[in-house]
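Exercise 7. Given the encoded structure of a 492-residue chain, write a plausible sequence.
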């Protein structure tokens, strides 16, 4: 039976129908909308009611197209949340993880609770915007949310609550809070208390692939549709994306490629040791009791922000033209570490890139081609670094890299990734997070018996392009330059 996936990204959301024809998976987008964060006063928020409205449009369009669906699942970006009051009403607008409220907060928390302690308990990487530090930021500001709040729900949980009335957390997203203990398989209540957050905010956690509420009667009446069950899918988009990697044998390396680049491998249990701590790897919960041993890489964010900046300034930002200019620019002239904290917030990327180069004794890129080349080359060099680190920390070696997600539309990026790694890249599917959302609903229905069987169906249903390395020796040599300049950056 067809199912409906809501796949919400940091800049756009979509409602995607999953259909099965002779055991091949087909997907059809029924609705797409932009997701624009809003600055209100001092802070950057998600326009959560707008997202809810658009999801309702998705339900309506599904009905209007005459499509019958047996269930619905929601996935979105991780770490962000809303707080409900005692009467079940949402208090305030959820904060965007790129909001400045968390500036310096992680460092403050780590002065009172050691990184070793937090990592030992959670196995989660240290990112300044993790839920734990957002909550510590609320505490620091003595936010009214702490006095009035009664329940915390992550973004997809919150939207599911609006649509079903049920308050339930979901496992994959819960792990990204850095407040979930994978050994206890529950919230780490001691850590929650240490941060000073009411532990009653955290309730039961559903595993992906289990039922999690029915469309509430107010919504069925409003839209004139029949009640529908909601399935807790891998509600963390990266969890859904990796569920849809078409790898069917042996350990594999993956890169979920969008605004963020998430690179790593799948493991059966979290790997929590000195090496994963010092190299800041994470162990995020996945489908079928798996974990994603991965690292966040800043991804296409710098590229996207640069283009938005040029667009605001009235420059020609034709995508194909810019990539062509980048390809024509002289290789290996300027390197940045995409994960340097200077590149995390929104705004003036061009000058930040130039400043970075000046501070690390490099000639700053000037032309559009040089700037785009610098961004993409630095990104794929970082891929090489994390790929090799993943092999080390997981004590495995991989024969290539599976790339999934919208970023693989950028063929130059795929091509350069293969060259920088000196390994083939298998690119596809593009809509991995929506497909992962869909297959978990089908696992719940019994259409697929296991994740392995579902991945086989993905492999047989969607095209995968192979990119072979080119000039691998030149890339290998240039990698030394990348290492030199990004090491220098550690001191600026
Ligand atoms: C990607 C993603 C990633 C998180 C970030 C906040 O969309 O979910 O896995 O680290 O957003």
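Solution.
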């Amino acid at each position: 039976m067809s199912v409906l996936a809501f796949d919400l990204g940091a800049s756009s959301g979509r409602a995607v129908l999953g259909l099965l024809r002779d055991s091949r998976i087909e997907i059809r987008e029924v609705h797409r909308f932009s997701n624009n964060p809003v600055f209100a006063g001092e802070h950057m928020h998600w326009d959560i009611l707008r997202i809810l409205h658009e999801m309702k449009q998705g339900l309506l369009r599904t009905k209007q197209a005459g499509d019958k669906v047996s269930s619905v699942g929601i996935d979105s970006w991780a770490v962000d949340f809303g707080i409900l009051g005692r009467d079940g009403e949402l208090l305030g607008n959820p904060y965007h993880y790129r909001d400045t409220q968390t500036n310096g907060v992680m460092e403050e928390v780590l002065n009172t609770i050691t990184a070793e302690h937090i990592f030992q308990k959670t196995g989660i990487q240290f990112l300044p915007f993790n839920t734990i530090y957002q909550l510590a930021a609320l505490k620091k500001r003595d936010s009214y949310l702490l006095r009035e709040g009664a329940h915390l729900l992550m973004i997809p949980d919150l939207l599911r609550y609006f649509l079903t009335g049920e308050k339930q957390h979901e496992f994959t997203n819960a792990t990204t809070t850095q407040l979930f203990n994978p050994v206890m398989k529950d919230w780490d209540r001691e850590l929650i208390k240490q941060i000073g957050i009411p532990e009653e905010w955290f309730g039961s956690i559903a595993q992906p692939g289990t039922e999690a509420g029915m469309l509430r009667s107010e919504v069925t009446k409003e839209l004139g549709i029949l009640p529908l069950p909601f399935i807790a899918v891998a509600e963390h988009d990266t969890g859904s994306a990796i569920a849809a990697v078409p790898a069917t044998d042996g350990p594999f390396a993956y890169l979920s490629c969008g605004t963020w680049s998430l690179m790593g491998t799948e493991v059966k249990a979290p790997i929590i040791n000195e090496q994963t701590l010092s190299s800041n790897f994470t162990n995020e919960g996945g489908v079928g009791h798996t974990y994603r041993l991965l690292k966040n890489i800043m991804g296409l964010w710098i590229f996207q922000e640069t283009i938005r900046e040029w667009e605001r300034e009235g420059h020609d930002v034709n995508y194909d033209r810019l990539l062509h200019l980048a390809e024509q620019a002289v290789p290996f002239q300027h390197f940045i570490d995409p994960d340097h904290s200077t590149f995390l917030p929104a705004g003036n990327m061009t000058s930040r890139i130039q400043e970075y180069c000046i501070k690390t004794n490099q000639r700053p890129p000037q032309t559009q081609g040089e700037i785009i080349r610098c961004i993409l080359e630095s990104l794929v060099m970082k891929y090489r670094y994390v790929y090799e680190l993943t092999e080390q920390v997981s004590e495995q070696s991989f024969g290539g890299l599976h790339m999934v997600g919208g970023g693989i539309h950028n063929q130059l990026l795929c091509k350069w990734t293969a060259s920088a790694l000196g390994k083939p890249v298998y690119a596809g599917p593009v809509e991995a997070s929506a497909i992962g959302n869909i297959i978990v609903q089908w696992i719940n229905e019994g259409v697929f018996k296991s994740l392995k069987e579902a991945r086989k169906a993905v492999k047989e249903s969607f095209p995968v392009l192979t990119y072979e390395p080119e000039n691998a020796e030149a890339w290998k040599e240039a990698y030394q330059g990348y290492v030199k300049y990004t090491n220098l950056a550690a001191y600026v």
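Remark. The chain has two domains: 2-237, 247-428+462-492. Students should compare their own answers with the one above.
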